[in-house]
Amino acid sequence: MKATTRKIRDADATKARILAAAKSEFARVGLGGARVDEIAERAQANKRMIYHYFGGKEDLFKVVLEEAYLDIRNAEQALALDHLSPREALETLVRFTWQYYLDNPEFITLVNSANLHRGRHLEGSERLRVASRRFVEMVRDILERGAGEGTFRTGVDPVQLNITIAAIGYYYLTNRFTGAVMFERDYMSEDALEQRLAFNIDTVMRLVLA
């Protein structure tokens, strides 16, 4: 029994190392540029283990993408926004999304890579569909509570609102290099990041306030 338990723990640890290495490699060079040899070396595993646990490179890419999206969805649920007032809940969500992008730059590059391949690696993920439905319902609940107390206007689409929350942070960060050249400002200075967050919150609130 002890030997079996240890074997399971070892297998779980190996899979975790492979996923972490693959996430880093796919975020760095994309699906096309990633090499199984490099992932194996980073994970301190051999190629046979990668094929054994995950199949080929594309299968591994699917798992990495699914886990990346599920991570942010689970983190959003952990905010427990239903215990906050609608206005505070929505502001918390905007702050969280912004900070998540800053803390997890690999997520943004993985999203870029997923869209480069037209989302086909996520099409079969029922786990992701379920998590996304839960997220939409969470935002819908915030909006309905706000409308019910007269704070928010009625008829705001939770999906459209989420697209806006994601976009105003995502675009700023993915275009920070070209933007710095064109607008002659340091997008990533502490002051600039604080100003951007304040602008994001103000923008979203103006969209929903009654």
Report the C-alpha radius of gyration, rounded: 20 Å
Average the pLDDT over all residues and give the rounded result. 92
Poorly predicted ranges (pLDDT <50, ≥5 residues)? none
Q: Provide the number of structural domains.
A: 2
Q: Give the class-level CATH name of the largest domain.
A: Mainly Alpha
What does the overall shape look like? globular
In the CATH hierarchy, what is the architecture of the largest domain at level 2?
Orthogonal Bundle
CATH structural fold name of the largest domain:
Tetracycline Repressor, domain 2
How far apart the termini lie comes to 62 Å
**Overall number of strands:** 0
Count, helices: 10
Q: What does the largest sheet look like? A: none
Topology as H/E string? Answer: HHHHHHHHHH
Explain the overall architecture.
By secondary structure, this protein is mainly alpha-helical. It has two domains: 1-55, Homeodomain-like (Arc Repressor Mutant, subunit A, Orthogonal Bundle), CATH 1.10.10; 61-208, Tetracycline Repressor, domain 2 (Orthogonal Bundle). It contains ten helices and no strands. Helix 5 packs antiparallel against helix 7 (126-148). This is Nicotinate degradation protein S. It comes from Roseibium album.
Topology:
Layout: H1 2-33, H2 36-43, H3 47-54, H4 57-77, H5 86-103, H6 105-116, H7 126-148, H8 158-174, H9 176-183, H10 190-208
Helix pairs in contact: 1-2, 1-4, 1-6, 4-7, 5-7, 5-8, 5-10, 8-10
Structural descriptors:
single chain, 210 residues, mainly alpha, Arc Repressor Mutant, subunit A, Tetracycline Repressor, domain 2, 2 domains, 0% strand
